[in-house]
């Protein structure tokens, strides 16, 4: 079938595109364009991209407002940091066979993601019975609870509830600022989420967003798909958290995961277009880089965001990209072919 | 006589103090086309909501092929073989016509999360297979050329048809149609009539339908059940019903 050929080609082109990006990264790096400052911004872009795309699963595709995404990020960050710290200590003490930093990071990341997913499941099962504003408030509450609990956990740098003192930072976290590995993790995460939304799962959750009564009448187990999406989303927030924890500063503070952090990601999703992964990726990068370039106006950032959001809601309520998805393959086809072929365009909608 | 497919015994539901449906008894035989009529607010849609698990009955029970269905969730009832359409069309408006039908196949898809993430051969095989099945089904309704359309852009009559197609795609044995002809002009109604006849023959399906259009009901229904104030006031053949004094009273007032 022609369809299959297109799929393979499209996949290859996408892979090629990613490789080109990787080579660009390598070139910039080897010509000395990557000082620690730029590296920092790059890492920030990476975890912002994962956060925004994973939040988009819940907000854009499932159509539920979630205001506690930073909570899952915190769970992932702390879990992974504690795991890598423990492994590090174990290696020092000789109880664990020495392994490379990279494998330590991956083990920590996976643990962080799984624990975040577990929290997603635990929060999702009761919370997803509610919808709209109610769910928003529940998730907001959850995010705050996580933060306050972490603040008081002795092993997470807090002083414990009994002391009644403000917590401190978790310190001495391993560094993992190899930009290629972080880049790869980001690409794979986004690819997995794209594959997720372009399967029966994505179809089902979009249907639930459109009309949940009709969805259940068409045989969908609405609760299952909702909770699953919430869990997957939390899983990737956990991965973003792991990247954040190991970004090189060596410390984690509970105050890194406030409600404002969650709203940052909500803004990225809304600006980029709910239901467009492309939009989330681009706005995540933009909104991570822009504040750095406009350092002088840093304290006006939230003000600016709100103004942009209001303008957006008036003139383009669907977000920058609506639910458009960028496909390198189709762009190239458009450029190099005289006549667009219909079969290929319909394949773009269904598969790839 | 054919086997019983959908049977309700003493089915009823109360919302607080309001008894919306009471002592509802029905026994639908395989292949039958039964009409459910009654004045506004009589409880017709409540019956459908009970049969599809949207509401949980507070009294009595209903059975599909003698298997207890009451108390089950909507998607479980759909999996067992009861599908419905809605009085106010409920399509996934922003999805394509094709996708609307594909959704109904979701419960039969066997690939899981790993399959969809790794894009295994099984994934593509199933995705291709359900697309072909959906296309076949759409062609029954003459919608095959519009498979790529946004469902919300279809003309009204075709939206109704698509909703029926989606219900059939669940592989239902029992189809509940809630006012399928509502808002249609006479031509569209005639088309719908033909369409219902086709699917009955083709899919060997049993239908219970709610309708206000008396010409449609009298035309195609083999048996009619009339309810008013949540209770059955008459049931029988169309001719009998149209002469039943109780029915006339309910519709026209005493």
Characteristic key phrases:
heterodimer, A: 352 residues, ABC transporter involved in vitamin B12 uptake, BtuC, disordered C terminus, B: 254 residues, alpha/beta, 6-stranded mixed beta sheet, 4-stranded antiparallel beta sheet, 24% strand, globular
Blueprint of the fold:
The complex is a heterodimer of chains A (352) and B (254).
Chain A: H1 2-30, H2 36-61, H3 69-93, H4 101-127, H5 133-152, H6 179-197, H7 200-210, H8 212-217, H9 222-245, H10 259-272, H11 277-293, H12 301-315, H13 328-336, H14 342-350
Helix pairs in contact in A: 2-6, 2-9, 2-10, 2-11, 3-4, 3-5, 3-9, 4-9, 7-9, 10-11
Chain B: E1 4-15, E2 18-29, E3 33-37, H1 44-51, E4 59-64, E5 67-68, H2 74-80, E6 82-84, H3 97-105, H4 113-118, H5 121-140, H6 156-169, E7 174-178, H7 186-203, E8 206-210, H8 214-220, E9 223-228, E10 231-236, H9 238-243, H10 245-252
Parallel strand pairs in B: 3-8, 3-9, 6-7, 7-8
Antiparallel strand pairs in B: 1-2, 1-4, 4-5, 9-10
Helix pairs in contact in B: 3-5, 3-6
Helical content of chain A, roughly? over 70%
Give the helix/strand class of chain B: alpha/beta
Tally of separate domains of chain B? 1
Order of helices and strands of chain B: EEEHEEHEHHHHEHEHEEHH
What's the architecture of chain B, going by CATH?
A: 3-Layer(aba) Sandwich
User: How many strands appear in the DSSP assignment of chain B?
Assistant: 10
* Major β-sheet annotation of chain B: 6 strands, mixed
Q: From the coordinates shown, what is the CATH architecture of chain A? A: Orthogonal Bundle
Named CATH topology of chain A: ABC transporter involved in vitamin B12 uptake, BtuC
How big a fraction of the residues of chain B is strand?
15-25%
Which consecutive residue ranges of chain A, at least 5 long each, have pLDDT under 50? 343-352
Q: List the domain count of chain A as a whole number.
A: 1
- Regions with little confidence, pLDDT below 50 for 5+ residues of chain B: none
Whole-angstrom Rg of chain A: 21 Å
Quaternary state of the chains: heterodimer
Largest sheet of chain A: none
């Amino acid at each position: 079938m022609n369809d299959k050929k297109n799929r393979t080609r499209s996949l290859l082109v996408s892979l090629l595109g990613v490789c080109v990006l990787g080579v660009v990264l390598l070139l910039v790096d080897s010509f000395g364009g990557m000082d620690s400052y730029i590296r920092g911004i790059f890492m920030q872009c990476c975890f912002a991209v994962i956060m925004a795309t994973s939040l988009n699963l819940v907000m854009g595709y499932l159509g539920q407002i979630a205001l506690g995404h930073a909570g899952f990020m915190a769970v992932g960050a702390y879990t992974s940091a504690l795991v890598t710290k423990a492994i590090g200590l174990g290696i020092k003490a000789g109880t664990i066979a020495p392994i490379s930093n990279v494998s330590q990071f991956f083990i920590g990341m996976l643990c962080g993601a799984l624990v975040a997913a577990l929290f997603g499941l635990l929060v999702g099962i009761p919370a997803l019975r509610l919808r709209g504003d109610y769910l928003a408030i529940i998730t907001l509450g959850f995010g705050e609870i996580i933060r306050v609990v972490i603040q008081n956990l002795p092993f997470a740098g807090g002083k414990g509830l009994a002391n009644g003192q403000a917590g401190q930072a978790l310190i001495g976290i391993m560094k993992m600022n190899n930009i290629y590995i972080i880049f790869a993790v980001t690409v794979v995460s986004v690819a997995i989420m794209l594959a997720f939304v372009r399967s029966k799962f994505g179809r089902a959750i979009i249907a639930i967003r459109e009309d949940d009564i009709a969805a259940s009448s068409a045989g969908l187990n609405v609760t299952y798909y909702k909770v699953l999406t919430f869990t997957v989303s939390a899983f990737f927030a956990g991965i973003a958290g792991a990247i954040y924890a190991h970004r090189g500063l060596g410390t984690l503070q509970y105050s890194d995961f406030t409600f404002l952090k969650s709203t940052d990601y909500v803004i990225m999703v809304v600006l980029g277009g709910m239901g467009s992964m492309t939009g989330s990726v681009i706005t995540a990068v933009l909104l991570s880089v822009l504040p750095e370039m406009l350092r002088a106006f840093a304290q006006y950032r939230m003000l600016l965001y709100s103004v942009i959001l209001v303008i957006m809601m008036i003139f383009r309520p669907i977000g920058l990209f609506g639910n458009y998805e960028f496909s390198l393959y189709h762009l190239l086809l458009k450029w190099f072919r005289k006549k667009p072929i219909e079969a290929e365009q319909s394949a773009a909608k269904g598969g790839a | 006589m054919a086997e019983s497919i959908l049977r309700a015994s003493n089915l009823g539901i109360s919302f607080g103090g309001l008894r919306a449906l009471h002592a509802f008894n029905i026994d639908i035989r395989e292949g039958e086309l039964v009409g459910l009529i009654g004045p506004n607010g009589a409880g017709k849609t409540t019956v459908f909501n009970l049969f599809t698990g949207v509401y949980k009955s507070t009294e009595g029970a209903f059975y599909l092929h003698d298997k207890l269905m009451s108390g089950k969730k909507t998607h479980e009832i759909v999996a067992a073989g009861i599908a419905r359409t809605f009085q106010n069309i409920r399509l996934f408006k922003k999805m394509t016509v094709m996708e609307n039908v594909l959704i109904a196949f979701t419960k039969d898809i066997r690939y899981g999360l790993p399959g969809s993430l790794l894009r295994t051969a099984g994934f593509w095989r199933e995705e291709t297979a359900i697309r072909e099945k959906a296309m076949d089904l759409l062609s029954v309704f003459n919608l095959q050329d519009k498979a790529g359309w946004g469902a919300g852009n279809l003309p009204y009559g075709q939206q109704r048809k698509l909703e029926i197609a989606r219900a059939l795609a669940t592989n239902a044995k029992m189809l509940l149609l809630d006012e399928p002809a509502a808002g249609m002009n006479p031509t569209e109604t005639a088309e719908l009539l033909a369409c219902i006849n086709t699917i009955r023959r083709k899919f060997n399906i049993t239908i219970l339908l709610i309708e206000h259009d008396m010409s449609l009901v009298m035309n195609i229904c083999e048996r009619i059940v009339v309810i008013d104030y949540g209770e059955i006031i008459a049931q029988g053949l169309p001719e009998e019903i149209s002469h039943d004094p109780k029915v006339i009273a309910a519709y026209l007032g005493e």
